[in-house]
Every structure is written in structure tokens, then in C-alpha cells.
Amino acid sequence: MLTKRIIPCLDIKDGRTVKGTNFVNLRDAGDPVALAAMYAEQGADELVFLDITATVDERKTLIELVRNVAHTINIPFTVGGGISSVADVSALLNAGADKISINSSAVRNPDLVNELALEFGSQCVVVAIDTRYVDGEHIVHTHGGRKPTELRTIAWAKEVEERGAGELLLTSMDADGTKAGFAIELTAQISGAANIPVIASGGAGTMDHFVDVFTTGKADAGLAASIFHFREIDIPDLKGYLSGKGVEMRI
User: What are the catalytic residues (predicted)?
Assistant: First the structure.
């Protein structure tokens, strides 16, 4: 059985780590390089770095910051934000990223998923899906959750897998930052339909929330931010707890 992964997420704005609720009301959470080093030391399985305003500001990801984080850690490192071309991905991989995450650009140009998978391999391509429940439907949102699209979440997840995505990063905007638990039902639906790993994001508040998302939700990885940044839960404690509950972990 594959071990489940614990992934801290660094949401970056103006070079600092920030965290909000439902994608708004951001507050400072510290220096991204120092946090990355701490998580690698604590035994995080991977790290995700999202430049959350790159698309909205119509600029590229902060390459220098990516390079600094990559030099500091020894765990797989996924970078997202403002990526819209093969050249962007090349630059980030050269700066030390192991994988890239695309969202808005994949919605705008779905063929980009195919292009990146062909150029760099599916294992490098994570498609992030920010979803909100609207009028009885799970709807994909772009631009840091600001813009609703016409896309239905489950159908979109299937499409990007067919196009060559190697992994899905599913964020429930309704649950994000609430600490009330992951979107278990939706995660289970997508995990059940997908043949690629699903990273669940949004809503982690307790260790039992991770138990739920790995068992009922069938997720391959659990991603969280504020509970780790503000030391509400430490990764070694979380992994020990999960392991005790029968969840396969790399400890």
C-alpha cells in the first residue's frame, strides 16, 4: 500500500507566507524560506508553494524565492502561480522546483496540460482545482478563487487526467481556512473517479480531519497551511497519530 502524504502549503503574497479564510482576509504567517526549512526538518513529505496573486497581478512566479526555498529543503517541491507556458515551467524547474501546479492557465487553455505533460512528463504536472459549491453544483474557480467558470469540478478533474495531469490538487473554497474539516464527499467522488493521486486541501483543523480525508475521502495526500504555520499541529505528532489509526505513513 502506498503511504499517505502530509503536505504543508506556503501561500505567498509579496514574498511573505500568508493565510486567510475562504481565500480572503489574509494574515502574515512568516518567512517562506524559514518555514520551508522547518517543514523539511519536521518530516513533511512534500511542500507546495503557491504565489497566490501572480495570476491576478498578471506576472510570473517569484523565481528567486523559489530558488532560495529549493536550496533550503530536501523534499519534493511543487510551485504554482502565474504559470502559462513551457518556458515558465522550464524556468521553475531550473530554479529547483520538482513539480509545477497550474489552475487558471489550464482552464484558459486546456491544451497546456497536454503540452506540459509531453514536454516534462505527467509526474511533473499538478492541476490545481479551486472549487466552490454554487446552486447545487461544484464549480471550478480561477484567479485565486476570484472568478467562477462554466466548468463542473468532477468533469474537469476527469478531463485534465485524460490530458496528462499526473496529480490533482483539490481545494474546497467553502472549507478553506475554516478548520471545520475537508470536503470529504467531493474528495471521495474525485478520488474514486481518478486514476491519479488526489491531494485534498481546505478545511484541516484537527488530526481526525486527516484520518477522515485519508479513509472516507480516499485522498492520497492531505495539504494544510495555517494549522502548521501557527504550530497548532506539528507534523511529527500528526504522522504518529495517523499511523496509530492505521493510516500508512512515512515516519
Answer: 11, 130
Q: Give the span between the Cα atoms of 167 and 164, in whole angstroms.
A: 9
Sort strands 125-134 and 137-142 into parallel, antiparallel or unpaired. antiparallel
Tens-digit pLDDT profile for residues 193-247: 999 999 999 999 999 999 999 999 999 999 999 899 889 999 999 999 999 999 9
Extents of the domains making up the chain: 7-244
- Using CA atoms, how far residue 160 sits from 107, 125, 175, in Å, is 10, 10, 23
Active site residue 45: no
- Topology, domain 7-244: TIM Barrel (3.20.20)
Active-site option among 11, 45, 51, 212? 11
Contact 48, 204 (CB under 8 A): no
| Residue from 45, 51, 130, 220 carrying the catalytic annotation | 130
- Grid coordinates given for 100: 509545477
pTM value is: 0.93
DSSP 234: -
Asked about 135 being catalytic, the answer comes back as no
The fraction of the chain above a pLDDT of 90, given in percent, is 77
